[in-house]
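A note on notation is needed here, since sequence and fold are reported together in a single record. The reader may check this reading against the record printed directly beneath this paragraph.
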Amino acid sequence: MILPALRALGRWPLGFLVAAGHVVGFGAGAAITGLREPGGGAHALRQAVTVTTRCALPVVLVVGPIGALLALQALTLMRSFGVERQLAPLAAAVIVRELAPGFAAVVVAMQGGAAIAAELAAMRLTEELDALDVMGLDPRALVAGPRIVGAALAAPVLNGLAIVTGITGAYAMSVLGLGVPRALFLDSVGDGIAIVDVVVSEAKTVVFGAALGALCAQAGFSCERTTEGVGRAANRAVVASVVVILVLNYLLNTAIFGLRGSGA
């Protein structure tokens, strides 16, 4: 009884590692070969514009209110301790380091990633990918690669939009809603962050964008050849992408900011 249970328990992490290896191999191969194709870079840029256009409004609608709620809850506590001046630096640090990259990537997964998985799954269903293969062309390079690179390029752009939107929401709640002096907020908002924080935030979203692009493209490529399979592929891709983004965000933040903190 014990040995079969241990074997079953061990198959979970092993299966996860195998699946992760498949996604990494598929994504890296598709992105590299896609960029090597004639016009591959231009195609990737078009995909980046498409993802950015699809996700810009949802990012604004999600991150703006979250920045306002952050300011509301933080100011309520800070006023009781008389440290109201620390509101703007705290809001800026949390938004730049945590909220903007995390929520921007989640929105890209739910909006852009679902579209990538559904498009490729539909192409698998209608045998367009098979037709490219029969003609001696690499469907990964021509179809999946530009979408993966496009997601990686779009994610930092949307993260920048999320940072601006989140801090604007915090400003609106603090200054316009709760009476914090405008000069106090604007003069202190930059005290909580440095250039390295913005660079790290942008770099993280490139990783998130590439990861969700590879996950969603691989899900579309491997979908069942049924109409229900298209929906399942999109749903599976979004769920897996959100989980991976949250785990990667935690691991990267722990590694980057934890090491910086321990060395302070």
